[in-house]
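Supplementary Data S3. Sequence and structure tokens for construct A.
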Amino acid sequence: MKIHIITIFPESFSSYFSSSIMKKALDNNLFELNYYKLNDFSDDNFKRVDSKAYWMHWQVISAEPLSKAIEFVFDKVWKKIPVVFMTPSWDLLNQEKIENYYDKLNDEFIIICWHYEWIDQRIIDIYIDYCISIWEFVLSSWELAAQVFIDSLVRNIFWVLWNNLSLEEESFSKKLNRQKEYPVYTKPEIFMWKKVPEILLSGNHKKIEEWKLNNLT
């Protein structure tokens, strides 16, 4: 999977993707991140990419630099690829939608991370294929939302997780009927007077599976 990220703050991604599961996946070339600093596509002497919205008091990302950045990526990959716009509303993500986006983004896409109040509507009208939200709230800038979306997609790539079977049986998975996962336990068997349920110590796989399904939350 190749992901092209257009952002004013590419450095904001470095911490998250330089540790844990995401770092290992990048090191193993299971996915690829490409950053494009939006200011580099500005014709302004001070490399500004925003302007005051008509008849409003807030700043909006201008159409020209954003269009140039998107077209630059299209030219680089020799084709038009899906463009994702992270928003505070519209299509709210859940696990089933993540799985669908994983299938239909065709292994390569652009994410636009915006700042200030919004982006020029004409960019949405001309270029955007998917407006995606992690929930109904507003952020100062949308790199964080992009990281959430990328993580949720990348973990579906084969071998990103140490055990691929864990994708089949986790909260909101299809196998669990999109419900929250059952309680889980590990050693010691007794902790602060609370004991692991006897059925999980029994070795009876059929009964354990029944217990799991009966304890979905």
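Construct B, processed identically:
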Amino acid sequence: MLDQSTRAEILKLHEQGHSIRGIARAMQLSRGAVRHVLRSATDQVPQLERPEKATPYREQILELYQRCKGNLVRVHEELVAAGAQLSYPALTAFCRRQGIGQERKLPVGEYHFTPGQEMQHDTSPHRVEIGGQLRLVQTASLVLCYSRMLFFEFVPTFTRFDCKVFLTDALQYFDGSCEICMIDNTHVVVLQGTGRNMVPVPEMASFAERYGFQFQAHEKGDANRSARVERQFHYIENNFLAGRSFQDWDDANRQARAWCDKVNAEYRSKLKACPRELFATERACLKALPIWVPPVYRLHQRLVDMAGYVSINNNRYSVPEEFLGLQVEARETKDSIEIYRGPRRIACHRRVLDATGCRYSLPEHHRPRGQGLKPKPSDSSPEEKRLRQEVPEIIAYLEALKKHYSGRATIPLRRLLHLAEDYPRAPLLQAIATAGQYGLFDLERVENLILRQLAREYFLIQP
């Protein structure tokens, strides 16, 4: 079929007085085609009116489309079962031309950003092989809109804690932040509302204020507004993840950061530069990071079980045995689990990302089976030291006396020292031996035994 410009040239040459044969020879067309254009007397291309096989079944197709929930395969099966002589490509072409099940495509806009104006953040699920196992992970990404600098990490889940940890790593990677962080309407950040009416969660708003930026959400369904970060997920999935496997989470994120360094330094024809070169301009416009911010952690209140462990995210971490049954506070950071009793840290473990249900113990927290708690060594009292030096014969009774009285037995030892200083050695030792034989630890009665011995031997009355 001749196009509109060719038809217009045929009409123009005919008006100039050229014959049909001359027009056909000059334009290398058939004389029939030239006559057909001259008979129509217009340069408009006629619409082809071809009967379609699916036209008689239009109402039936509309009904089946609703009943089969938009599945054209099932619609075709039902039509064939009803006796329609129609192929599946003919059905899909008919639906496409008639607009059945087809969404109208709308033109997309273009967004231009100045340096330091906006960064875009989003997450996307991907299938990644970690530790020999294919698993579903969350890919968190942040892109600077002007320079197209990219940073992403893999996490097993994406909560507010994970969001703050990721944004902290990303802002440290860029060494600054833009004025606006564009997000979708995710519940991780959004408290209520959508688009311009979005109100962020106070926890996340406080986090953003600490780094000098604000969260903004695009309108619901307007994914093109965050195309800078959305487009990168396709690039990550079909370039970085293609044919790669990782030993663990640390290995995956370490390779991801190295890949970001590589692609950020590559030349892009659309930008006529590489992101690193554009970032050199944008970096001066970024909000400077504060000199210090509190570390991101998630707080857990736990009771230490009788085995000496606390459970966090279905993983059990050991605690020293002296804290059995006590309330402790666990702080979950990006890399560690820190356990506090009051203001003092009593244990620190490396954080395990996967919920394994296993125990993770430190050797200094648990003694070998069969060894009980050993009493803490305590310094001897001055009274005990003097008794051991001056009267070494009564050390056995001294140990028994300390076991009989709780604590350091300071008062009984002081009384025993007075007895040793006031009375002669022989009756003292004889009385102590008698008291030790019968388990007598009342020092008043021990003194009476000494006085009786003295009365017999030293105070003899002559008749």
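Residues 55-98 form one domain. The radius of gyration is 45 Å.
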